[in-house]
Design goal:
42% helix, two-stranded antiparallel sheet, 276 residues, alpha/beta, eight-stranded parallel barrel, TIM Barrel
Length: 276
């Protein structure tokens, strides 16, 4: 397996496969094994696993045989296991005790895989705001405690501003609870990306790369509102050394789109390093 220090690029599960119409975040139940082979071929270092509602039962992460198969695919393709995103909470309120228990059970499976980052997107059914922030603190402490026992960093993605997110992390007060920085979502929320990144320098543990337009639609990298030159300059300024996970549109050919994404991000990353 690849040491974390050498990781460069990851791909959210399902983004190397064409999805059903109108479906963005999707577990590719019929082709999930193939994505590991494809990732290795195009220079992706890891697949960011997802758990979601529609194909929750079929997801191999819930069984010991499935865990074994995932590990074997990772080994045979010289990949690693780095992150999992629990999209289940987008459709089920995190404040419901049943959803908290789903997270705890999922974390136990994540521990078996040796995954380092547990991504929690607090949108839609679990939207976390300044008005309800306090309600999330104790449940997130429960999650943080379980994750800590497996050396897992819990990475939160919210609509909060950088300052508000720092306030939330201070209230939770667990060293293994950090932030996801998603370029597309942050620009859609109207945040100053470069300023945000510098403000959150001590808290960013994971980066999602995507682009969005003024209609909040996911678009091909470089064609939307994200100024990637400024983003990578800021990430370089804060000495961010982690990998970059593509959570991008698939385009007409997901594999060719992925190759384009890797090339574009490599360009901006190298430019930021050379501009010092």
């Amino acid at each position: 397996m690849i040491p974390s220090s050498l990781l460069h690029f990851g791909m959210v599960q399902g983004r190397l496969t064409q999805s059903p119409p109108g479906c963005l975040q999707w577990f590719p139940q019929e082709s999930w094994q193939d994505e590991f082979n494809t990732a290795s071929d195009i220079g992706v270092n890891y697949i960011e696993l997802i758990a979601e509602v529609k194909h929750n039962v079929e997801n191999p992460i819930w069984t010991n045989d499935g865990i074994s198969e995932i590990k074997q695919l990772v080994r045979s393709n010289n990949l690693t296991l780095h992150a999992l995103c629990n999209d289940y909470i987008v459709e089920h309120s995190f404040l419901d005790e049943r959803t908290i228990q789903q997270n705890i059970k999922l974390l136990e499976q994540v521990k078996k895989l040796g995954i380092e980052k547990y991504i929690m997107p607090f949108f839609e059914s679990s939207e976390l705001t300044m008005d309800n922030m306090q309600e999330y603190v104790d449940p997130l402490r429960k999650i943080a405690k379980v994750a800590h026992s497996g050396n897992i960093t819990v990475c939160l993605e919210t609509i909060l501003t950088g300052k508000e997110l720092i306030d939330l992390l201070s209230l939770i007060d667990y060293p293994n609870v950090k932030a996801v920085y998603d370029t597309g979502n942050r620009v859609a929320f109207g945040h100053d990306l470069a300023g945000d990144i510098r403000l959150l320098s001590d808290y960013i543990a994971h980066v999602h790369i995507k682009d969005k337009n003024s209609d909040n639609e996911n678009v091909l990298l470089g064609t939307g509102l994200v100024n990637f030159e400024n983003v990578f300059d800021a990430l370089h300024d804060i000495n961010y050394s982690g990998p970059f996970t593509f959570e991008t549109v698939r385009g007409s050919n997901p594999i060719e789109t992925a190759k384009y994404n890797i090339s574009l991000v490599s360009f901006f990353k190298q430019n930021a390093e050379l501009s010092v």
